Amino acid sequence: MPRFVSTATAAASRQAHSYLLAGTPASRFAALPAGCRGKATLSGSNVKTPAFAFDMDGVLIRGGKALPNARRALEKLRGDNPQNKEIPFIVLTNSGGESEASKAEKLSRKLGLKIDESQFIISSTPMRTLVPKHRNDLVHVVGPHACKALAQKYGFKNVLTSREIRDWNRHAWPFHVRGDEHPQEPAPHDLANTPVGAILIMHDPPDWGLDIQLIMDLLLSHRGDVTTRRNPLSVAESLSSSSSSDPGLPPIPLYSSNADFLWANEHPHPRLGQGGFLAALRGVWAQMVDDPAAQLPITTQFGKPSAPTYDYAKRVLGDGVVGGVDAVGDVYMIGDNPESDIRGANANGWVGVLVETGVYKHGDALDGGRKPAVVVKDVEAAVDWVLEKEGVLN
Ligand code: G3P
Ligand code: MG
């Protein structure tokens, strides 16, 4: 049984990683998509199999299009190499905003190669580990509307969107927001009598203004009761361990799925990501609590380079190989973003391989934890470099 999923949670969250739970290693192995069976471990010997984690934006695709050689690179891991070896790989992306299945399906169509949902980790996937704690809480989900269904699919029973909070009290944000052209829906939850238990930023918010206002209201409320407002200074005090008097309970938990300040799409210059939103949110928070150095009270930061995401990915990789995570040798993170992909790989004992098809531009600084094992022109060159190093090409 994988370590991180309790039987109850396993029962609740089945989709993307259902093979993680069922039966013996051999039957789990049989249930795996082809590209996930590291043959090396079959012989029960302690030969470890290398494994790959591919970033998506700027490595496999850029905007709506597959990057050249991306399909060829993956085919080499599906046995098209001199030793016909199948090497396990996952896609580990900070993007999100829709289900793993739909992302995997779209990427498979762009590449013309089947990527299974079980091989796909988006920025919010590791938030599944929050379900045991917040299953029955009312959780405010920030991100595109599709995040509501995704949170429910993960196992959160009571999910509330920013639009629904605003529909409950239009004065909360008296400016036009996306969807205002549609008739106002009755708010599904009576927020006067139902406190919000946690805030999950599941993907880059489409409406920064609305979401900054609503998150502020909740962080400054009494334990998630949106009809209340605490003194911001005492809230800030409740967060600092050195407070003298009893400043009351800290704000409700705030989770973020990724902190990418920039990401690469069709635009010639990288775009602001969720990290840009977090920077704006922190600016307002610091002014609100009258402390320029104040940090956002984020309970858990997910997404590359954070450890919770790499731990989750390690388990998914491990459970794709007979013998589990102990049978996985070096894990190669192929990424375009030194700040998330390479810093994360270095901090989590993986090998970082940086490509020049996305955020990173030749000559950009690669110091302080962002130094990759090698910089190569694209994803196929990255796979070749690893297969050469692992002796698979001879
Ligand atoms: O943060 C934005 C996200 O789209 C970056 O995706 O695949 O480069 O981690 P990826
Ligand atoms: Mg990228």
TrEMBL record:
Pfam families: Hydrolase_6, Hydrolase_like. It comes from the Eukaryota. InterPro entries: HAD-like_sf (IPR036412), HAD-SF_hydro_IIA (IPR006357), HAD-SF_hydro_IIA_CECR5 (IPR006353), HAD_sf (IPR023214). GO terms for molecular function: phosphatase activity. GO terms for cellular component: cytoplasm. This is Uncharacterized protein. It comes from Geranomyces variabilis.
